[in-house]
Design brief:
The complex is a heterotetramer, with two copies of chain A (217 residues) and two copies of chain B (237 residues). Chain A has four helices and 13 strands. Chain A is of the alpha/beta class. In chain A, strands 4-3-2-1-5-8-10-11-12-13 form a ten-stranded mixed sheet, sandwiched between helices. A three-stranded mixed sheet of chain A has the order 7-6-9, with no helix packed on it. In chain A, strand 11 and strand 12 form a beta hairpin. In chain A, helix 2 crosses helix 3. Chain B has seven helices and eleven strands. In chain B, helix 2 runs parallel beside helix 3. The chains are: A alpha/beta (217), B alpha/beta (237).
Chain lengths: 217, 237, 217, 237
């Protein structure tokens, strides 16, 4: 067990901002439920990014003002959203044509564990008491061109989430391209996890002490 | 003359038999045919296999159908939702069976069922527990898993507008599984917010052509499921 | 070679009329190119029949008046048609979902040969000089619930078209349900070809003399 | 900013390389992108594999592309039409290759290519010469044949209206292969009768969402192919 205090790292907002900065103008992006949803509000000025939500909307806009919600206009997290000019609605088979057919450029997902080879576990802790629920995660990691993970570096109890090998059931094998954590941004490469950027006050050594995965400077 | 309009939701669900496989549209509450599900509760058919993305919220709609012990097995991608209480309880007791399917594979299996495609290969779930026991095959160096079509005896679907031929249009993201579920059932049963005269729906914008639809019932002011859940309503009322 | 004179049989109009009489109210019907197209104009009063054309229209109406043709509103035979109220347009994959998915009730096709077990050959004579062209015929016979063939009993040269076994390349095996010819209407049954109706002046013996297929009274 | 509108048809077909696989929309002349095909003739890419339901009429459009010896192979369901002269001549000389596919299998293979499905089973063509050499498999007592996805480097598609995101609507039966061909190409190139402002197409009636489209060019008064054929016009003019 290691020190999980991350006061010196980035907060969730800053993590989401880093993701948003890496999404180029014109990209088609699918955002997972939870923290990834924050990314949509942080796109830099001058970029036009199109959000896909797998329940049948391309061109998802921001949350509507209170009172203007339509329970038939929701995102994958079942929250009320809006549609931008140029949006389109479609059924589920067409929506997953976009996903599986490699039409979506970037997907941002949360994680329970990511391995040094880019394996992702984010749908089940494998506990017998838990009700397994997978949603669209397995289709997304199998079909989207670039997979970004956004996640704390350590669990709430201080255990590593960046691991040599996932112990939880996989969502996909070798699918993650980049990991945005509170302590660093890491790229999955054939040689190991390349540290792309360190949060202020975080050392490479500290990162490496907190994972058995192979990190590269 | 073709007239698929039936008088009420009881007529709409008539003939659903014990042991039937039923597809139910909706992604959470959006597109969920609450009134048809309630009619199915009144109707009473049991030992159902239900194909639906979720398992319902609170004690109304799909959750109420499960709570009324009419469902033997669920085929879905995400059996949890914020307010799902009924399914988890029965599942933990071992009183209901679950087949968990990735959402895209679920959609494609339903679409295949409607399109006369018995099976197809997909990259989703390869190297995960959900592909265990399933056949895999390599195409161009990549591994894919064989998935089989799903068909149903009946589909219960909610749409926005319908005509007597069964042509349908939907509302926003409430479209979700409706169109493919209409294609994959022997009898697709649809509740429409409004039945319009033949010809009122532009042929260019029809989402579900009438050929896929068996019965249509008008339900003018369908329930807002989340309100019912917030009020802790239970069906039967 | 037998006598191909069929003055005593039904003409093409009468054959098409017999097909039209057998299409029930409310049926979804696909009509092949050529003689089958005649059927649509012969539906008895009071029946509503919906015509599907595989190039993307359900609810095909009659030929438009001269001058009102739209080259973007055509049938599978590439002739200008109209759309009835309640029609819908869709793309080719959706159109063949209707066909392959057993949503179409009846398909009426022409034939080069039909065997006593319902095998159909209607797309190629297999001659090396011919350019093979299949269109939607193989999908139609594989997916439509009931297949009616409309065809002369004999070829122009008096050779049998109803055969024990097809010599031309097959469109589908055991797919034909009923054959409407100028001399008789025949049902394909497990015991052989059941003569359902004889044209005026045509005897069972004459029919049997002109095919090696097994006919049943 | 996303702006997929290009200036002219020459820009639209730029980058098409020798040996490319190209899907071309249309069923006969309905939906055939004649102006884009003519731009491809001017462009000159050769050794193309073309996926299209037919092989063109007279000496314009697809027939002219074939006549100009730019096409090595055709993948289609019906290579004959009333006025097809060019393809038959080259085919008899052995100067062009033909892969004949049942029309529904052709559509489904294209759709699979766009949907990330590498292969699927279909009942069409079983027990016929077109299934020879193909793998078959029995599901529930019925035999099916394995068909593989088709993808293209480019698709040339004609539509009715488009916006700068590439959202498309079509006109009547000219829709045919357009929507699935947009999904199955690395770059879908579309000619639209009218480019409309973003937001002018209702999100409920978009047929091809912009994500599937690479480039859009406005061609306000597209050729009526059958008139050109009747006048015995030839391209290049």
């Amino acid at each position: 067990m290691v020190n999980g205090d991350n006061k010196t790292g980035w907060d969730v907002q800053q993590m989401a901002q880093k993701v948003a900065m890496d999404i180029p103008d014109g990209a088609y992006v699918n955002l997972g439920i939870g923290i990834p949803e924050m990314v949509s509000g942080l796109v830099p000025e001058g970029r036009e990014v199109i959000y896909h939500t797998e329940n049948g909307l391309l061109g998802m806009g921001p949350v509507p003002p209170t009172g203007a919600e339509d329970p038939e206009l929701i995102n994958a997290g079942k929250k009320c959203v809006t549609a931008i000019p140029g949006a389109s609605y479609f059924h589920h088979a067409d929506s997953f044509t976009m996903i599986r057919g490699r039409h979506i450029d970037i997907c941002v997902l949360g994680a329970l564990q990511v391995s040094e080879t880019g394996d992702l576990a984010n749908w089940s802790t494998g506990e017998p008491s838990a009700i397994p629920a997978v949603g669209g995660a397995m289709d997304l990691v199998a079909g989207v061109k670039t997979i970004y993970v956004i996640s704390k570096y350590l669990t709430k109890t201080g255990a590593p989430k960046i691991v040599k090998q996932c112990t939880y059931p996989l969502t996909g094998k070798g699918v993650v391209d980049r990991i945005y954590t509170d302590l660093a941004v890491l790229d999955v490469t054939v040689r190991g996890l390349q540290v792309r950027e360190l949060a202020p006050g975080i050392s490479f050594e500290y990162l490496q002490q907190n994972t058995e995965a192979k990190l590269i400077r | 003359m073709i007239d698929k309009i039936v008088r009420d939701t009881a007529d709409a669900v008539s003939g659903i038999f014990d042991g039937a496989t039923i597809m139910i549209s909706g992604f959470g509450e959006a597109g969920s045919p609450v009134e048809l599900i309630h009619a199915l509760i009144d109707h009473g058919a049991r030992e159902l296999t239900v194909v639906s993305n979720n398992t319902g919220s609170g004690h109304v709609g799909l959750a109420a159908l499960i709570e009324n012990r009419q469902v033997r097995k669920m085929i879905c991608s995400f059996p949890r939702t914020t307010n799902s209480k009924v399914f988890p309880e029965l599942y933990h007791k071992g009183d209901i069976e679950l087949e968990l399917v990735p959402q895209g594979s679920l959609a494609e299996r339903i679409r295949a069922g409607g399109a006369g495609i018995p099976a197809f290969y997909t990259p989703a779930s390869v190297n995960t527990p959900l592909a265990e026991g399933k056949e895999t095959r390599v195409f161009n160096g990549q591994t894919f898993v064989l998935e089989h079509a799903i068909r149903a005896d009946f589909s219960l679907v909610k749409c926005h507008k319908a005509d007597r031929h069964g042509n349908l249009v939907y509302n926003k993201t409430a479209r979700n599984f409706g169109p493919i579920m209409c294609t994959a059932a022997e009898t697709a049963i649809v509740q429409a917010r409004e039945v319009v005269p033949l010809g009122a729906i532009d042929p260019e914008v029809v989402v579900t052509p009438g050929i896929f639809v068996g019965r249509v019932v008008e339900v003018r002011n369908p329930a807002d499921e989340s309100k019912l859940v917030a009020e802790d309503r239970r069906y039967p009322w």
